[in-house]
Specification:
heterotetramer, A: 305 residues, alpha/beta, TIM Barrel, 4-stranded antiparallel sheet, 11 helices, 16 strands, 33% helix, 20% strand, globular, B: 261 residues, 3 domains, 7-stranded mixed sheet, 5 helices, binds flavin-adenine dinucleotide, binds flavin mononucleotide, binds FE2/S2 (inorganic) cluster
């Protein structure tokens, strides 16, 4: 049975990855599961310099979901390479580094820095974080800016580029096309959706940052539709994510057109989820008499004709 | 750190809104250090996704127990669970208290409400017995007084309404005690944030060392999500550290109670 | 204790209404609850002519939510007036009629027809239904078209107009302003969010219409953020909706800036929800020592300053 | 139509995946007509929001019972509920079967699986006894044979695997029976859609009237959401009608099994 899938020039041993920001730098979960069984490890978003992030509270639990406004706390490129790379580079599966910046130049500079690092699997451009003032979603909700960011990173590195699109647009197709045309090897869909919650006792927003991004099972039907739409718009592969907590969820994304999937929020409540998804996917293929996971990719679209 | 499906052996009301849960967890129980916690998934909570963190109260062989207060949907669902049912627990997690060395400091424990849960193992494993100061709003908030006494510890109780022990805040008898002498003494505290802050201030005033266990809302519990951060003083300024990973126990002197400027 | 609120020229006895399409034409629920206790009855979307709607399956249950693609089945203006108006006009609370069309002219014509009907409380312009090909969301995701639809209806009727905005936009503020400037008396936020689900056994979309609109508790954090944003953009009152199933949910919307709320999907699983929300709201005001529900409106915004 | 919090009196396995639930529902039970249903909210289902529709199987005084098959999360959660726990039920709902007038037609009932549940009250209340044709895949899918027999009805069983009664489909003995004569006979059917469709075709062929109870996924159950529609022939063409309101029982002749053109 073949489980490997390709994201342009990057080949994954299997389609089950993890979502940036929900898996730390890999090392934190290494004692709970075998990272080398994943399709790829995707690390928390890194910008050039260290970032303190937003005031607390930074997450709030809602019906079948979570709102977060972490604010991309992180050690910056140097801190990341010093603290986490020595561990990450020992993994046998691809490591995908999620990067961001507040300017075009910073995006490109971060890409350039990682280009110089031996062993990086791919860079994922986060142009869709709703929780920071400059950068983030700002680049992801303007087609022209999006194309510029992707092109700037494309010029800065030969690493495979994955553009992580914002869900917060009228139609995703033009953004998907803009990223593909600017040289992105693959797309990641979706990031969190702008959202908030209010504490009725204090009449205050529940998040220190006032608003945040919604993730978890509650957004799955939205994410699936975005993957469905993007698959019709572009030929480059898609990593589907948004609320995946079971093999059935992952299979829905594959059928809609994703070549790979990422488990995000579910890691927080069930760290075994990625491995459970992988085992369930294997069992499903077997039961259906399929020999290659790629037979599932987009199958619901092909069937409708 | 292990993730285990643990079976409930007992789950009984202690007083009022407090419950005691005993689970069989052969991989987790033997490894627990005082002040560490378990991150528990409560299956009947369905549309509420997250695990809930609880200090590990006691361990005995392959079992550990929690002492918890019902404050919301998770703890209420937990209180309805019965022996034989299972939970998922990740643990032991976090940095616990530094157990005093034999002949080292005499521990003074300060607990508010379910804070007692985080301190029992420390009392049990400390080579020196000390004093435990327990505070609560009412009589029902004073937990396991007898169990600490049975360890040979002196227990000083305060309640805000005076229904049990001395009337007032737990910090009052603590101050009285510290006025009698500070040398060779060290504070260990767990309870509501205002209490911890008061303890930190008292420790500073009296120049005694103090370790405090912070109670921050958590999400992942294992250091990946960066939900539970608190501002911590460093050599060069301050940084956000994770209560679940660098904590929950911190040296009182490094905790900044407000985010600088 | 004052519970009445005003939506421009329309006064509601209390702020708890129901969401169009989740309460039929009122009569269906009349045996389960006293409609005269509601803030208003809002009926299913009506266009000029009868509509058959979409193929089945038309709804699918998802985590803390529902996806629907009913396709605005309805009797048309004449059928509505004949079958349902005789009952609705006997109600003592305002009846709000949700209307739509496939062209500007049809919107205006429907508005004109209801202008001629004695006793209508207000018209709610549905420019945001994701489940029909022509009309619907098409008008709601283009600021200029939105302004034209509202202006056309404004010219066609003197009835209070409520514009029901689409959530599926990058920023809601320009749409809110466009509707206000074109003469809308109030806004309704939000309609369902484009979404889908796939049956993994058959590899087919679960809805006859392939895609549908997501509603229910899962979208509440999104809806709340949209109300929050719109409140900052316009002075006209807002009816907040999206996943409300308890008084606490409703209060969150009021605190975010809604003057009234609507219960939607929750009616399907708990028809008493609107009355439970109202009772809970009353109890909350009492407990907080407030004498007027309007003290809550936007309070979370005022508090942040 | 009432919405009531109903208390579970019994909830026991019947055979294999079938359960029988008895609830106390003083406002609903006395008003049930044969073929009507209740729309039930199952509290342990939390992130799954919707009610589930079930035919009302039997009524006795202030109680009614359901006969249900566990097929998914709702029915499985229901099967785990215990006497004393409560559900919310809305009912009685929908248009049921036309109970034959005394001296009127002789009813021939056709049931597949839990379709039996919709037909019991009709058998009980029909002034004329008739024949009930029961089909299922295996022996365990044949429900309450004895109870129909105790009403004095003749029960003809078919199973697809031949493990009980005749081997084959339920429509085979029905056709045999209709070949013997059709006058004064009327069909009443409930079961899977392919079976209902076959029954409708047979009724047309033999020129006998038939009422069939359709099984459509539902959402509101009371006519507001327009989820459960089926295409129904009208004087001027066809229209979508609601299974929950105009149905679940329809005259077989008006049901269009496919949406025209
Ligand atoms: C390291 C650590 C150890 C803990 N040990 C114990 C223990 O031994 N015994 C015990 O009873 N509780 C303990 N807690 C607190 C416990 O985790 C919360 O009470 C629990 O998560 C609440 O869950 P819930 O679903 O019942 O409440 P929710 O419905 O989630 O919330 C109800 C209320 O509790 C508040 N709340 C939620 N999380 C926390 C939190 N972490 N601290 C304080 N308030 C909170 C909410 O803001 C809300 O007001 C500990 C917390 C931490 C971080
Ligand atoms: C008028 C009416 C009367 C009914 N009477 C009975 C009865 O007396 N006894 C009984 O056991 N069942 C009856 N049903 C079917 C019952 O409602 C479903 O089996 C139940 O809703 C499934 O819920 P679930 O959560 O267990 O399954 P889900 O997890 O929701 O779904 C599991 C599987 O069942 C399918 N399913 C869901 N709803 C229906 C449905 N309405 N019909 C057929 N398949 C469905 C799903 O597509 C899925 O494949 C009746 C349905 C209707 C419309
Ligand atoms: C706490 C948290 C932090 C996140 N941080 C990042 C990040 O640093 N970079 C990024 O591109 N996405 C980030 N995301 C978004 C996730 O990668 C993912 O797109 C989203 O959570 C949807 O998937 P899920 O519903 O499975 O969680 C974060 C999400 C969460 C919940
Ligand atoms: C089955 C269904 C039908 C709906 N029909 C309409 C409609 O006819 N017109 C309209 O403006 N909104 C319609 N809506 C949207 C609701 O009015 C409401 O905006 C949405 O459901 C969000 O609220 P909720 O989450 O409380 O359901 C419909 C929603 C559902 C679930
Ligand atoms: S709770 Fe996730 S980092 Fe501490
Ligand atoms: S289920 Fe809602 S109309 Fe029938």
């Amino acid at each position: 049975m073949n489980l490997s899938v390709s994201l342009g020039r990057l080949t994954l041993p299997n389609p089950v990855t993890v979502a940036s920001g929900t898996f730390g730098y890999g090392v934190e979960y290494a004692r709970l599961l075998d990272l080398n069984q994943l399709g790829a490890v995707v690390v928390k978003g890194i910008r050039l310099t260290p970032v303190r992030g937003n005031p607390t509270p930074r997450t709030v639990e809602v019906a079948s979901g979570l709102i977060n406004a972490i604010g991309l706390q992180g050690p910056g490129v140097d801190g990341f390479i010093e603290k986490y790379w020595p561990f990450l580079k020992t993994l046998r599966v691809p490591v995908i580094i999620n990067i961001w910046g507040t300017t075009l130049e910073e995006y490109a500079e971060v890409a350039r820095r990682f280009d110089a690092l031996e062993g990086v699997g791919a860079l994922e451009l986060n142009v869709s974080c709703p929780n920071i003032k400059a950068g983030g979603a700002h680049f992801g909700t303007d087609c022209r800016l999006l194309a510029e960011v992707v092109a700037a990173c494309r010029r800065a590195t030969r690493l495979p580029l994955i553009t992580k699109l914002s869900p917060n647009v009228v139609h995703i197709a033009p953004y998907a096309r803009a990223a593909a045309e600017a040289g992105s090897d693959a797309l990641a869909i979706m990031n969190s959706y702008p959202a908030m919650a209010i504490d009725i006792e204090t009449a205050r927003p529940r998040l220190g940052n006032v608003t945040g991004g919604l993730t978890g099972p509650c957004i799955k039907p939205i994410a699936l539709k975005l993957v469905w739409d993007a698959y019709q718009a572009v030929k480059i592969p898609i990593i589907g994510m948004g609320g995946i907590q079971s093999a059935a969820d992952a299979i829905e994304f594959l059928l809609a057109g994703a070549s790979a999937v990422a488990v995000g929020t579910a890691n927080f409540y069930e760290p075994q989820t990625p491995l459970q998804v992988l085992a369930g996917l294997r069992a499903f293929l077997e039961r259906k008499g399929l020999t290659d996971v790629r037979q599932l990719v987009g199958a619901a679209q092909h069937q409708l004709g | 750190m292990f993730e285990d499906t643990v079976t409930i052996l007992a789950n009984e009301r202690e007083t009022d809104a407090y419950f005691r849960l005993v689970v069989s967890a052969p991989r987790i129980a033997p490894r627990v250090q005082p002040g560490q916690f378990a991150h528990v998934r409560i299956p009947p909570l369905r549309e509420a996704l997250l695990r809930r963190p609880f200090s590990i109260f006691q361990v005995a062989g392959d079992t550990f127990s929690l002492l918890y207060k019902t404050v919301g949907k998770g703890t209420e669902a937990l209180a309805r669970m019965r022996p034989g049912e299972t939970l998922s627990a990740i643990g032991p997690l976090g940095q616990g208290f530094t157990v005093p060395a034999p002949g080292g400091e005499t521990p003074l424990l300060v607990a508010g409400g379910y804070g007692m849960a985080a301190l029992y193992l420390l009392a049990q494993r400390s080579p020196q017995r000390g004093v435990v100061f327990v505070g609560g709003r009412r009589r029902v908030d004073i937990l396991c007084e007898r169990e600490f006494a049975e360890l040979g510890w002196e227990v000083r109780v305060t309640t805000e309404d005076g229904s049990h022990g001395e009337r007032g805040l737990v910090t009052q008898p603590l101050v009285t005690e510290l006025r009698r002498g500070t040398t060779g003494r060290k504070l260990f505290a767990c309870g509501p944030t205002p209490m911890l802050r008061a303890v930190a201030r008292i420790a500073e005033e009296f120049g005694v060392p103090a370790e405090i266990s912070l109670d921050q809302p958590m999400c992942c519990g294992v250091g990946v999500c960066l939900t539970c951060v608190v501002p911590i003083r460093t050599a060069t300024g301050w940084e956000y550290q994770r209560t679940c990973t660098e904590g929950p126990v911190f040296d009182a002197r490094v905790v900044l109670w407000e985010v600088p400027e």
